[in-house]
Amino acid sequence: MGIKIMAVFGTRPEAIKMAPLIKALEKEKEFDTQVAVTAQHREMLDQVLRLFNIVPQYDLNIMRERQTLSDITTAAIDGLDRVFLKEKPNLVLVHGDTTTTFAAALVAFYHKIKVGHVEAGLRSFNKWFPYPEEINRKLTGVLADLHFAPTKRAKLNLLNEGVEEESIFVTGNTVIDAMSYTVKKDYTFREERLNRIDYKNKKVIVVTAHRRENWGAPLENICNAIKDIAKSYKEEVYFIYPVHMNPVVKNTAHKILGGFDNVLLLDPLETDEMHNLLARCYMVMTDSGGLQEEVPSLGKPVLVLRDVTERPEAKEAGTVKLVGTDYERIFKEAKLLIEDENEYKKMANAVNPYGDGKASVRIVGAIKYFFGLSKEKPEEYEGGG
Asked: The UDP-N-acetylglucosamine 2-epimerase domain covers which part of the protein (predicted)?
């Protein structure tokens, strides 16, 4: 049967980043690879599973209307406890910082199963930003046996917390691997309105804003800044905002931004749609963590709509700029990139510190090394110092 590896995830961002790793593991005859999803996000997760042709062996389907963090945690723990008891995997792989990630690592620990943490070591050093992700990631790190750090900086964070160096592997980020599957030059959008946009002559700005810590006044500030940029640059700029399904986000976005000719509000896009839109746009404004990694690989500047980030490598490399949620700052920094070609090129041409498309291969090599199937520890990814 080989070594049984169970990949566990529950949201779309996790699925995107785990998909290329699952595909790489499935090619290895020494591994019996299984997938369990909690589906703490249902529809958005299913889109990614279809795109990468991944059929989970276990689907807990825990998502409930108006679910709280406690609801997600307890449902994931209860469901995964039964799965691990039945399957007894040799290694549980989790990704990043979601509630599913922490719950899976905790249940694996209860069953004395080894835990591999993909995208380990990111830190904002503020437990409330991002919330609850910073604490989910730190707690998972305490429970993990294998730490797949995307950058040297992430490795240093782990070392500073007392993690043994032998258990840390610097791999790059698997999201860069995923984009090699999705971005196509001759891509035609299923969302027909996206095919009618003049990407060559318009400065198309993609927006995503949905983080829990930005609900309320911060999200209103973001939307009001976008509204006034749209009004100031009616002929030059076109905004596309795939709006998160959460009613708090949806209501705010539609109330402030609805009805403008150069603002397109969409339902969330499927992964390949989003990646190909990012490849065609002028720049991105986002509070997403993942987009801070993905977009620079496409040569697009990113304005980060957050006060702190657990991804300082991008900020230091110059691929992203942290602008927070203050109306004046957002307006000023967007205006600069719209009007100043040199500032735009400086960010667009900066080197992405997050990966070279080989992260999954390195992680597979590290797992083989850990289980004694290979004598060679994989070479570390050199980026993101």
From this structure: 23-368
